[in-house]
Structures are given as structure tokens and as C-alpha cells.
Amino acid sequence: MKNPQEVLLGNRQAPREVGFVLLLVLTILVVLSGAAIWAAKATLSTEQVATHFRMNVVAHELAELALRYCEDGVMKNDTFLIILPLPLDAASGAMPQAWSNLTHWITIPSQVNTVPVAQLQDAMGASSATAPVCMIEEMRLVPIDTQPLQGFLITARGFSQDYKEASDGAITSGTDVWVQSMIRF
User: Fold this and answer.
1) This prediction's pTM
2) What are the pLDDT digits (tens) for 12-49?
3) Can you list the alpha helix ranges (DSSP code H) found in 16-132?
4) What is the distance between the alpha carbons of residues 178 and 123, in angstroms, rounded to a whole number?
5) Residue pair 111/138 in contact by the 8 Å Cβ criterion
6) End-to-end Cα distance, the chain
7) What H or E segment, with its residue span, contains residue 9?
8) Nearest Cα to 161, choosing from 61, 58, 47?
9) What is the distance between the alpha carbons of residues 110 and 165, in angstroms, rounded to a whole number?
């Protein structure tokens, strides 16, 4: 009885099977797996960037809210707000500097005004983990036509939801956004 391969091939020898197709399929699978892993990492990276951007935008909105809170208080002559006087030895037209020292933001008694929780909830629909704050500093302006001018430098800070700081005020996680405005009368 003849082997079925001999019947099909006649007197010729059967070709040697070396697994070329299997090697090709495995190579294609490795390449496709690598592409899938790269796509997953790219998606994750894009999501992280979008999350960071969203948190930064919210922190900026909170800083703007604090700025408006202090501006409104100054305009209404609110006696509950803390206003830092300009040092007596400051020259006319000198800019206040307390805002630029991080320790002034964390000292007790506080030199900053915190936006009330009720106002945060009205504006944002929820309260922030760290409430936004603002500092109001008096400015000594150069008189115009012998008319004295009163001015204030208002600096506000807004914080992301994951904001945390050390006891010295250094940021350990999250982000903060600073905004400023000047008001003169």
C-alpha cells in the first residue's frame, strides 16, 4: 500500500516543513501587541494632560473668585477684610511687597482673607478642598494735581483639589494659581 503523500506527489519528495508561516504569524502578533501597548500609553498620557489642565483651570477660576471677593470688599469698604498697611518708610509710588513672601500667606494672625464657604458653593456649586485666599495691601500713590490717591494691590491664590503644602508653605502636591489687580480711588 502506498503512502497518501506518495500518491499525490508521484516520485517527487515531500517538501520540508520548516514553520515559516508560524514564524511570520508570531512576528506579526509581536508587532501588533507593541502597537497596542503604545496606543494605550499614549491614551493614558493624553488623559493625564487633560486632567492636569482641568485642575489648573479650576484653580485659576478659584483665584479669580478670591480676587473678585477682595475687590468687592475694598469697593464696599468692608470692615471685616484684613488690609495690610504700607510700611511708613515706603516711598510714594512704591509697590507693596508682602504678597511676594510666602511666609506672609501662612503666618498667624492671618494676613489673608479667605473666601467664605457659602460664596464658594454659590459660585462653584461645591467647596474646594483648600479655600482660595486673597491679600489686600495698601499702596501710597503719587498725587495727581495735588489730589491724594488711595490704592490697593490685591493678590489672590486659588488651589487645585489635590493641593497640599508643608508647614513652611512649600507645595508638596497639586498646584496654585496667583492673580493680581490694583484698585485706586
Assistant:
1) 0.71
2) 655 566 677 888 889 999 999 999 988 888 888 888 88
3) 20-75, 102-106, 117-124
4) 19
5) no
6) 115
7) helix 4-9
8) 58
9) 16
Instruction: Give pLDDT tens digits for 61-77.
Output: 999 999 999 999 999 98
CA proximity to 137, closest of 76, 182, 79:
182
Cα–Cα distance list, 180 to 13, 38, 49, 177 (Å): 89, 43, 26, 10
Do 125 and 113 meet the contact criterion of CB atoms below 8 Å apart?
A: no
Confidence of residue 104 (pLDDT cuts 50, 70, 90): confident
- How far is Cα 159 from Cα 157, in angstroms, rounded to an integer? 7
Q: Is 88 helix (H, G, I), strand (E, B) or coil?
A: coil
What is the CA 27 to chain-centroid distance, rounded?
43
How far is 157 from 135, CA to CA, in rounded Å?
Answer: 9
Pairing of strands 150-159, 133-140: antiparallel
- Position 74 scores a pLDDT of 93
Confidence of residue 88 (pLDDT cuts 50, 70, 90): confident
CB distance 136 to 70 below 8 Å? yes
Cell numbers representing residue 66 in the block: 478670591
Phi first, then psi: give them for residue 51, nearest 5 degrees: -65, -45
